[in-house]
């Protein structure tokens, strides 16, 4: 592992993007970077390592065109930021805006612009620009080759000898300072810090009864990690790369905005070094490859799924999830107010969960709940916000979920998940009697057309679901409503007596 050592304190700007609820995009960047560029390291032989420093992955490239965080400029008196000189009149624009404008260009135009100045060379080399071009234009019909820029060239100009041109290492530009570009590179190449992984405060259970699960976890809406409840799955034994590649052949799976064959996805995930790796997340895997669906079975705790009454009209509910280390899901709440289970078949996942009444730091949902703004990447959230959860009154629940273990994610809980190694998992979202009323309430919100997901007919889902429940399980909604009202009344009573009694000693308390 390469070590980054202290050479500056640099405050970077917030990067924000808004995304639909239950999607994986994010935004907001504010941090102190304690790092030094390799360019500076060349002139500095100090050996001490800063305790707040970060470790880079061993696969990290030795530099990102020499880009340094802005704070380093102040360590080099007399130097001029070549970011500005090379941009001409555009230098007044923020890095985000420059990249936004470059994002409107075609690959050939970016190529021409790269020859204008060193600054344009660095900006036009920004990998997400090339990734967007490839994903927009070829919708999955590409074979990833070392970087998105090379992939673009080899896809659209197959006669161009990329092998020869890429033997020449990328240019390293002197005196180029940009927090935005530096952080993007840093987040793509950082190792998870051990202290981000060590907190483990989830309740683990093995072999509990369904009644126990309902009473202690599902009814009170609390997460739990269930061990041993997928031991009988064929998937646990069989699902390695060879098996899946053989079974799936040319079938295409949903990977972010595109569709990819498994072989191409693994080719990509073996080489990827980016801040937000593409994640394979496919809701139709069992329809495409029925064997995948029969290699696992729903754990006994989650067998009641009332959305089944909708037959083919039920919203998407099960996904196969495959991703390399560093891929994952940034903070979100699960769709349609459903609860979920997530079973790890290969690899391991770090989970962080906050209860419904605690919005995680750095996460900003819109008032109607339709959009969420959060940090650009999971790594960025760890760098900038994880530390602040240490002193929070309502600490998150955290754990590492390993192969063979199942996480129960109760409805309404915020959660973030990062794969610590290449992982394969199955997740299902479901509605049981415990959250039926919640789900019905959610589906009839005035902005249901924006909130409801996983189905085309968003506005009518409430009516359809309610009618289908009435037809299949007559009286269930009324019965549950009555029970909920009784519970509420009971809670009110308790809280009144709590005000006049000391519940710990069972005696009255008086206050004057
Ligand atoms: O990346 C993962 O495994 C977590 C998936 C998840 O959070 C979800 O499906 O809601």
Automatic annotation (TrEMBL):
<protein>
    <recommendedName>
        <fullName>JmjC domain-containing protein</fullName>
    </recommendedName>
</protein>
<dbReference type="GO" id="GO:0040029">
    <property type="term" value="P:epigenetic regulation of gene expression"/>
</dbReference>
<dbReference type="GO" id="GO:0010099">
    <property type="term" value="P:regulation of photomorphogenesis"/>
</dbReference>
<dbReference type="InterPro" id="IPR036047">
    <property type="entry name" value="F-box-like_dom_sf"/>
</dbReference>
<dbReference type="GO" id="GO:0000987">
    <property type="term" value="F:cis-regulatory region sequence-specific DNA binding"/>
</dbReference>
<dbReference type="GO" id="GO:0010030">
    <property type="term" value="P:positive regulation of seed germination"/>
</dbReference>
<comment type="similarity">
    <text>Belongs to the JARID1 histone demethylase family.</text>
</comment>
<dbReference type="GO" id="GO:0016491">
    <property type="term" value="F:oxidoreductase activity"/>
</dbReference>
<dbReference type="InterPro" id="IPR050910">
    <property type="entry name" value="JMJD6_ArgDemeth/LysHydrox"/>
</dbReference>
<feature type="compositionally biased region" description="Basic residues">
    <location>
        <begin position="12"/>
        <end position="35"/>
    </location>
</feature>
<feature type="domain" description="JmjC">
    <location>
        <begin position="287"/>
        <end position="447"/>
    </location>
</feature>
<dbReference type="GO" id="GO:0046872">
    <property type="term" value="F:metal ion binding"/>
</dbReference>
<keyword id="KW-0539">Nucleus</keyword>
<dbReference type="GO" id="GO:0032452">
    <property type="term" value="F:histone demethylase activity"/>
</dbReference>
<feature type="compositionally biased region" description="Acidic residues">
    <location>
        <begin position="42"/>
        <end position="53"/>
    </location>
</feature>
<dbReference type="GO" id="GO:0010114">
    <property type="term" value="P:response to red light"/>
</dbReference>
<dbReference type="GO" id="GO:0005634">
    <property type="term" value="C:nucleus"/>
</dbReference>
<dbReference type="InterPro" id="IPR003347">
    <property type="entry name" value="JmjC_dom"/>
</dbReference>
<dbReference type="InterPro" id="IPR041667">
    <property type="entry name" value="Cupin_8"/>
</dbReference>
<feature type="region of interest" description="Disordered">
    <location>
        <begin position="1"/>
        <end position="64"/>
    </location>
</feature>
<keyword id="KW-0560">Oxidoreductase</keyword>
<dbReference type="Pfam" id="PF13621">
    <property type="entry name" value="Cupin_8"/>
</dbReference>
<keyword id="KW-0479">Metal-binding</keyword>
<keyword id="KW-0408">Iron</keyword>
<dbReference type="GO" id="GO:0010476">
    <property type="term" value="P:gibberellin mediated signaling pathway"/>
</dbReference>
């Amino acid at each position: 592992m390469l070590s980054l050592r202290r050479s500056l304190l640099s405050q970077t700007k917030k990067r924000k993007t808004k995304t639909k609820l239950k999607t994986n995009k994010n935004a907001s960047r504010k941090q102190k970077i304690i790092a030094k560029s390799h360019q500076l390291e060349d002139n500095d032989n100090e050996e001490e390592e800063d305790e707040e420093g970060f470790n880079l992955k061993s696969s990290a490239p030795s530099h990102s065109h020499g880009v340094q965080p802005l704070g380093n400029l102040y360590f080099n008196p007399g130097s001029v930021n070549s970011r500005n000189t090379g941009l001409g009149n555009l230098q007044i624009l923020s890095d985000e805006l420059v990249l936004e404008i470059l994002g409107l260009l075609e690959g050939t135009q970016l190529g021409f612009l790269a020859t204008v100045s060193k600054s344009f060379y660095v900006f036009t080399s920004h990998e997400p620009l090339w990734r967007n071009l490839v994903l927009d234009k070829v919708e999955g019909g590409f074979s990833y080759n070392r970087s998105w820029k090379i992939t673009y060239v080899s896809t659209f100009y197959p006669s161009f000898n990329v092998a020869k041109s890429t033997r020449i290492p990328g240019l390293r530009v002197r005196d180029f300072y940009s927090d935005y570009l530096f952080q993007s590179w840093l987040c793509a190449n950082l190792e998870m810090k051990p202290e981000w992984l060590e907190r483990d405060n989830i309740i683990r259970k093995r072999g509990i009864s369904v009644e126990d699960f309902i009473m202690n976890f599902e009814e009170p809406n609390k997460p739990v990690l269930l061990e041993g409840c997928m031991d009988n799955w064929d998937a646990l034994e069989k699902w390695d790369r060879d098996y899946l590649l053989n079974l799936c052949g040319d079938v295409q799976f949903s990977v972010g905005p595109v569709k990819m064959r498994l072989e191409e996805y693994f080719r990509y995930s073996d080489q990827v070094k980016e801040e937000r790796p593409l994640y394979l997340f496919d809701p139709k895997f069992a329809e495409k490859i029925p064997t995948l669906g029969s290699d696992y079975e729903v754990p006994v705790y989650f067998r009641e799924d009332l959305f089944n009454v909708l037959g083919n009209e039920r919203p998407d509910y099960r996904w196969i999830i495959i991703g390399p280390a560093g891929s994952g899901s940034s903070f979100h709440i699960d769709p349609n107010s459903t609860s979920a289970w997530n079973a790890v078949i290969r690899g391991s996942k770090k989970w962080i969960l906050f209860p419904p009444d605690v919005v995680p730091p750095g996460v900003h949902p819109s008032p109607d709940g339709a959009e969420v703004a959060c940090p650009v990447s999971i790594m960025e959230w760890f760098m900038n916000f994880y530390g602040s959860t240490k002193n929070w009154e309502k600490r998150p629940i955290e754990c590492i979920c390993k192969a063979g273990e199942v996480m129960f994610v109760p409805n309404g809980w915020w959660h973030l998940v990062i794969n610590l190694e290449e992982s394969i998992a199955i997740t299902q979202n479901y509605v049981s009697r415990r959250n039926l009323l919640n789900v019905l309430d959610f589906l009839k919100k005035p902005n249901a057309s924006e909130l409801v997901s996983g189905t085309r007919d968003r506005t009518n889902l409430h009516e359809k679901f309610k009618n289908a429940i009435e037809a299949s399980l007559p009286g269930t909604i009324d019965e549950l409503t009555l029970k909920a009202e009784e519970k509420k009344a009971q809670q009110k009573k308790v809280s009144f007596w709590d005000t006049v009694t000391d519940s710990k000693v069972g005696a009255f308390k008086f206050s004057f």
